TrEMBL record:
PANTHER family: CARBON STORAGE REGULATOR. Belongs to the CsrA/RsmA family. One of its GO terms (cellular component) is cytosol. It is found in: Cytoplasm. GO terms for biological process: bacterial-type flagellum organization; mRNA catabolic process; negative regulation of translational initiation; regulation of bacterial-type flagellum assembly; regulation of carbohydrate metabolic process. A translational regulator that binds mRNA to regulate translation initiation and/or mRNA stability. Usually binds in the 5'-UTR at or near the Shine-Dalgarno sequence preventing ribosome-binding, thus repressing translation. Its main target seems to be the major flagellin gene, while its function is anatagonized by FliW. The keyword Cell membrane does not apply. Homodimer; the beta-strands of each monomer intercalate to form a hydrophobic core, while the alpha-helices form wings that extend away from the core. It comes from Gemmata massiliana. Keywords: Bacterial flagellum biogenesis, Cytoplasm, Repressor, RNA-binding, Translation regulation. InterPro entries: CsrA (IPR003751), CsrA_sf (IPR036107). This is Translational regulator CsrA.
């Protein structure tokens, strides 16, 4: 898992076309704004689990084979 620190109104960019912006920080809650292409589904995890019937989190796998093996 990649962990990043961001302040209000700061963003991260994923794959050149998804932008996640910290909109508000209030106590222990953070509001995020997400800009993504219409063909990219964006769901809260509990909604994703309800749709797909899974409790397991989605884990991204590395597909870049250019890095030499350890």
């Amino acid at each position: 898992m990649l962990v990043l620190s961001r302040k209000k109104n700061e963003s991260i960019v994923i794959n050149n076309d998804i932008v996640i912006t910290v909109v508000e920080i209030r106590g222990d809650k953070v509001r995020l704004g997400i800009e993504a292409p219409k063909d990219v589904p964006v769901h809260r995890q509990e909604v994703f689990e309800a749709i797909h019937g899974s409790k397991a989190p989605v884990v991204a796998t590395k597909t870049d084979d250019t890095e030499p093996p350890a």
